[in-house]
């Protein structure tokens, strides 16, 4: 165990920490060229004289040799976006390790309507490429795998995901998909989502959005019999989050046509263009579909957040305000009034033990932003946060999108040319209605990002490294650190509680009102547990032999 780790759990500094000095300490041991690059990705959240937040370096390649927590493009496409869909057979074309790694690692839950409905999520489909397939090509093996899956399950659709070796040897998964689609008579489509395509899993999200939009969305024009129809975008039903959100929306009389992609189905995707409103939770992973559906079908979108009780109430009110129906507005207020007393009672109780404690959040998607609301509700402060795979607009807000330069890595990802559908385009609101709603607090296509909502002087770090993590723990000595799967055990060995927000481990749901209660209790249990003081063995606290590392 390193000296830095040993020192982490000593008393937190009484004097206020200078974030600029901390930034310089984080950069001190990097070579000059690396330090210059990392300095653009490590910022002190401080507005300038004009009230503008600083510009952060994001969506850039990780420096070779730095231990990053990122995933690959394949993981973002197959594991994140398509993984939660239960009735599409998702075949990984590549070595078995890729397919196995992306299989249910996020604890996506699903709930088929009956035992007769397909659910393939419990299966790991892979072509299991071997050495000879790399040498001679794997297209024949892929065709055989598609045929085998069709014969065994008779699915509505089959999707194919390319891994790194597939791109390197040149297997054409799209040609195979077209051939087998014609042969079998079902929808079969492929994704060029090789792990090296793009700088992180974010590239895979974009590729998956393009593929689903091209091959599935708009295939079913059936109009659902409901008064208020929405799509829930960027919600993946991790630990049952989607079930809690559905419970709340059902109580309000709001009908979900499709979820992208928690507890989702092929038919939901195909029918999603019939909704009246798109609501976006995870901005990074799904904003592409929201924009394309607005251009092609006329469905506007708003940013919402069901993480945190207050955010849930605010989001419900925004949805009700969009439909502008007194009956819906009244029902939403009734649901909020019914749910909030229990939430407030638990939060007030937990706040007695958690108020003033310090948290850090480094996790992908919008979670490093959204979960700060839950910590605020129990009186905890987030001193540092960042994303694994964000772009500048996730940090600074969508207003900066016109200023973002397109680099070579981003050009690897196809940009679809979207036009109004001549038959299905139907503007849900007139420009005048949109403007009126925006004036009433329902802005469209707007996301202000994480940084404007964080405290002055907090440290924002994009693509945090393991070395930086250890140093942050030593300096800040936080009461809890929230991140993903890879860094979990390294954090816990330092004596810091680690809340895994990538897949929740065994917890959840944490969305909505009931989810907020679950989270309050979980954090209370973790930060106030005595187990962490027993982490150090007696011979570590009172060694009979001592030594120093060569660099000390």
UniProtKB/TrEMBL annotation:
Keywords per UniProt: ATP-binding, Iron, Iron-sulfur, Metal-binding, Molybdenum, Nitrogen fixation, Nucleotide-binding, Oxidoreductase
Cofactor names: [7Fe-Mo-9S-C-homocitryl] cluster; [8Fe-7S] cluster
One Gene Ontology cellular component annotation held by this UniProt entry: molybdenum-iron nitrogenase complex
SUPFAM superfamilies, alphabetized: Helical backbone' metal receptor
Nitrogenase/oxidoreductase component domain sequence ranges: 72-527
EC number: 1.18.6.1
Gene Ontology terms for molecular function: ATP binding; iron-sulfur cluster binding; metal ion binding; nitrogenase activity
Source organism, top-level taxon: Bacteria
UniProt keyword Metal-binding present: yes
Metal-binding listed as a keyword: yes
Catalytic activity: N2 + 8 reduced [2Fe-2S]-[ferredoxin] + 16 ATP + 16 H2O = H2 + 8 oxidized [2Fe-2S]-[ferredoxin] + 2 NH4(+) + 16 ADP + 16 phosphate + 6 H(+)
Family: Belongs to the NifD/NifK/NifE/NifN family.
Subunit structure, as described in the record: Tetramer of two alpha and two beta chains. Forms complex with the iron protein (nitrogenase component 2).
Role according to the record: This molybdenum-iron protein is part of the nitrogenase complex that catalyzes the key enzymatic reactions in nitrogen fixation.
Full protein name: Nitrogenase protein alpha chain
Gene: nifD
